[in-house]
Write a structure and sequence with these properties.
heterodimer; A: alpha+beta; four-stranded antiparallel sheet; B: about 450 residues; mainly alpha
Chain lengths: ~150, ~450
């Protein structure tokens, strides 16, 4: 039954975001209820992210929205991985909202908006510490990585 | 899920989270977890509302409110939901989720419709060995199990009874047959329809035969005749038109008769009611405390006539004698209510008049009382003066002639008191005071 619950909730969300999305967020594809692609862009004139769009991949488990979706940036032509001290160069995002800070009242739209504001508020043109090592060694899914949410500034 | 163990036609439980709502639902009535209008909602101690199912599911992983992350107690001390929210949810208009059913009702009534009345609700197949579901209207022991496969009589394939007609139309291998008359290929079980509607070799009459056309031949010939212009067409059309007009006229005539009858009845009723109201008013106005039932007296003759079986003519505009009786009762109730209102007005009026009078009398009494008080004071003062002068005279007679000043004073007081105090002078001072006090009391008591 939980899978059915997830499907119904995702159906509702898809219906809503197909009609309208906040500025700077676009639905790219949602051909099924497991994996959606969305593009986000930063709307103010932060020089780090100007004139760039970034592609997000959402993967939903059967216990969505009780469990958070898996959200990563993906690299395709024209869609780089944004530079941010909490975003690894393989697209994995270190954000408590997507882990322990998740709540079932969050949704795809609210996650996109959080990521938008996370980029907007950033001034550091750098990757997380140990990025190269992490990217080389990591074989875990994002939800299985134990992040330590140490930094509340950015 | 079908529950076969209970026996009888069992049904799939209504799924409130996938209902189609007819109008847009206000955002405040949407559960933040499932994003559908609340179903059986509860409110957390921190004041947030969720569907019971949603919050329980969320609490399995995290024991905090999904909105503000305040801890929620294990024993789930939810608050009672305000009834106004329940009412709002109950009134939402929803469509019956059954395929084929277009019924729209308030959400409150959907359960009853779905479980008891909707003929499209899936129920267990009447065949005990079949575990599949079938629409309620098709579930009868006489029809038997519609999931049982039968052999198609034409192509000898196994097909479920419920799907037989779809099979015949689409995927039956031998579904085409040659029309014996026109040699065209048609779907087998549509052959009769083909013959009566389109086969060019069938014997038919001209479609304007009601106008008098005698042409009757094979369809293709008749069609040519019709297309080249049958002279009876106009006559036939005219006749049809006239028949149509006649039904409309009949309908209008009967409606007019109904309306006139109803109007006559209403006028009679009004006259009767006016007469009754007049007599009722008269008896209400008459002050007759000896007979407390006086207001009911004019009503009494009404009841037997209302309760007697109404004439057929009286009940003409009503669906049934019961409706007629109910209408009569409603009218009586209105009249009673009018009378009650008049009584109340009268009561209020009387109370007001009474209050007005008593206030005036009360004012007068108070005025009199104050006058008596003043008089009382004067009398006491005079008595004292009198007593003093007596005492001085007595002292003067024993201790020689009084001084000129004192005697003058006593003289002047005597002349000022005048004749009013002359009668008091002869009485005992104490007695006169008591007397005046007593008089004051009786006045006050007035």
């Amino acid at each position: 039954m939980p899978a059915q619950f997830a499907a119904k909730r995702l159906g509702k969300e898809l219906q809503k975001i197909s009609n309208s999305l906040p500025p700077g967020i676009e639905l790219v594809s949602a051909n099924n209820l497991e994996e959606w692609l969305l593009d986000i862009q930063v709307l103010d004139n932060n020089p780090l992210y100007q004139n760039e769009k970034y592609r997000l991949k959402f993967r939903f488990g059967s216990s969505y929205p009780i469990e958070p979706p898996e959200v990563i940036f993906v690299k395709v032509p024209d869609r780089p991985i944004p530079m941010h001290p909490h975003i690894y160069s393989n697209g994995i995002i270190c954000l408590d909202l997507l882990g322990t800070g998740w709540s079932p009242v969050q949704n795809v739209e609210s996650v996109c908006m959080s990521l938008q504001s996370m980029l907007t508020g950033n001034t550091k043109d750098e990757r997380p510490p140990g990025d190269e090592e992490f990217v080389r060694a990591n074989r875990l899914r994002p939800k299985d990585i134990e992040f330590y949410y140490h930094d509340n500034d950015v | 899920m079908p529950n076969a163990s209970q026996g009888g036609p069992s049904i799939i439980e209504l799924d409130y989270q996938s209902l189609e709502y007819i109008e847009a639902v206000d955002d405040t009535l949407i559960c933040p977890v499932c994003k559908t209008p609340f179903y059986s909602p509860i409110t957390t101690p921190c004041g947030h509302t969720f569907c019971t199912g949603c919050i329980n599911r969320a609490l399995e992983t995290q024991r905090t409110c999904p909105i503000d992350r305040q801890p929620i107690n294990k024993n789930r001390d939810y608050r009672r939901l305000p009834l106004i929210i329940k009412d709002q949810l109950d009134r939402l208009k929803v469509r019956c989720p059954n395929k084929g059913c277009d019924h729209v009702c308030s959400r409150e009534n959907l359960k009853g419709h779905y479980e008891r009345r909707c003929e499209f609700t899936p129920v267990a197949c009447p065949e005990p060995l079949c575990s599949r579901l079938v629409a309620r209207r098709d579930a009868s022991p006489t029809k038997g199990c519609l999931h049982k496969s039968v052999t198609c009589e034409h192509c000898h394939k196994l097909v479920a009874i419920a799907e037989l007609s779809i099979h015949h139309d689409n995927d039956c291998d031998a579904n085409e047959v040659e029309c014996p008359d026109c040699k065209a290929n048609v779907v087998r079980h549509r052959l009769e329809k083909h013959k009566s509607e389109s086969c060019p070799e069938q014997q038919i009459q001209c479609r304007w035969h009601s106008g008098g056309c005698r042409v009757a031949d094979k369809r293709r010939i008749v069609q040519v005749h019709e297309e080249s212009g049958c002279i009876f067409e106009a006559v036939s059309r005219l006749l049809d038109q006239r028949a149509e007009d006649r039904t409309i006229i009949n309908d209008l005539t009967s409606r007019l008769a109904n309306l006139e009858a109803a109007r006559g009845r209403r006028r009679e009723d009004r006259e009767r009611r006016e007469r009754r109201t007049e007599s009722t008013l008269l008896s209400t106005v008459l002050p007759n405390p000896a007979s407390p039932t006086s207001t009911e007296t004019p009503n009494e003759p009404m009841f037997p006539s209302a309760l007697s079986v109404p004439h057929a003519a009286d009940t003409f505009a009503w669906g049934s004698p019961e409706d007629y009786m109910l209408a009569r009762f409603e009218r009586l109730e209105t009249q009673m209510e009018e009378l009650r209102k008049e009584m109340r007005d009268m009561d209020a009026h009387q109370a007001l008049t009474f209050l007005h009078h008593t206030t005036r009398i009360g004012d007068q009494i108070a005025e009199l009382a104050s006058k008596v008080g003043v008089l009382n004071m004067h009398t006491t003062w005079l008595m004292n003066m009198q007593r003093q002068s007596h005492a001085q005279q007595r002292a003067g007679s024993t201790a020689g002639p009084p001084s000129s000043g004192l005697s003058h004073a006593s003289d002047s007081s005597g002349s000022r008191a005048g004749s009013s105090s002359s009668d008091i002078r002869v009485r005992h001072p104490g007695g006169s005071r008591r007397n005046s006090d007593g008089r004051g009391d009786t006045l006050t008591r007035l």
